[in-house]
Amino acid sequence: MSGIKEIREILYGEEYEKDGEKKTKWNRCGVMFIKEDGNIGIKLTAIPLGTQNLMAFPPKPKEEKKEEPVKEMEKDVDLPF
């Protein structure tokens, strides 16, 4: 059994318009593993509907990924239930 040689993120694009300019938002829906023996494994974590195009990109370094900080919940919040 051989090890993993390369990992790629599986993404699909959604086009949208902002300020009159067409843009593409890339959404992660899985990961692809390329093994040292040449075999490829794919693990989908979501199945995108309305598109037939998936792209495999090298993963971005963690410092480049845009993640919104998790906000702490206020302690004195009145819940409606």
Describe how the helices and strands are arranged.
Layout: E1 4-18, E2 21-35, E3 40-44, E4 55-57
Antiparallel strand pairs: 1-2, 1-4, 2-3
Report on this model:
This protein is mainly β and 81 residues long. It has a domain at 4-59. Helix content is 0%, strand content 47%. The chain has strands spanning 4-18, 21-35, 40-44, 55-57. The chain has a 4-stranded antiparallel β-sheet with strand order 3-2-1-4, with no helix packed on it. β2 (21-35) and β3 (40-44) form a beta hairpin. The radius of gyration is 18 Å and the shape is extended. It starts with a strand and ends in a 24-residue tail after the last strand.
Brief characterization of the structure:
By secondary structure, the chain is mostly beta strands. The chain has a domain at 4-59. It has strands at residues 4-18, 21-35, 40-44, 55-57.
Number of strands: 4
* Helix proportion: under 10%
Query: For the largest beta sheet, what order do the strands appear in spatially?
Result: 3-2-1-4
| Overall 3D shape | extended
> Which regions are unreliable across 5 or more consecutive residues at pLDDT < 50?
none
Beta-strand residue percentage? over 45%
**Count of runs of 4 or more consecutive helical residues:** 0
Distance between the termini: 54 Å
Round the mean pLDDT to the nearest integer and report it: 82
Biggest beta sheet attributes: 4 strands, antiparallel
Considering the chains and any ligands shown, give keywords for the structure:
extended, about 80 residues, 4-stranded antiparallel β-sheet, 4 strands, mainly beta
